[in-house]
Amino acid sequence: MELSEPPRLMQPTVAVRDSWLAVERADCARSGSSTALLDQAIEDFGQVVAERQGVGIWWGVPASFFWYISGDLYIGELVIRHKLTPALAESGGHIGYSVATPWRRQGHATRMLAAGLIECRGLGLRRVLLTCGVDNEPSRRVILANGGTPDGTANGEDRFWITVHGEDSLP
Q1: Measuring CA to CA, which residue among 25, 23, 35, 38 is closest to residue 69?
Q2: Contact 155, 90 (CB under 8 A)
Q3: Tens digits of per-residue pLDDT, 95-147?
Q4: Phi-psi category of 60—alpha, beta or left, where left has phi over 0 and alpha has psi -120 to 50?
Q5: How far apart are CA 142 and CA 96, in angstroms?
């Protein structure tokens, strides 16, 4: 599938409803994961979007959701947790991201995380923690490509810190 325009990180929007539902349906079927969010979105997609706009409290901390979008195509999601609880410091970190299955292995995760780091800078975060499963080599490569420094393993997850540089040091 061809993209009509370069993807960009933006606030969740109802404009990608059909695409979001299609990839969520396919990802749930592929992984066998819960369809609770999918069911909620089918019922009221606008509410799912509204809950993810702006800063909300998720995982016990302020968090911002962003979707990676090209035109009316949903490609992935990135979540920034503005601070860490002790649990998030162990597993989860500041940033979580996912790319919908049809868009994987095309560099989207690397570019999406790079855009997310710019958002982190705007939030005043100067050093962020990311974690990934020890067997998740694609995510490890994405994090390392964005400047991740390994910080050991905890609870079956590799830990990485990324220093968020100022505007004067962006490429």
Answers
A1: 23
A2: yes
A3: 999 999 889 999 999 999 999 999 999 999 999 999 999 999 999 999 999 99
A4: left
A5: 12
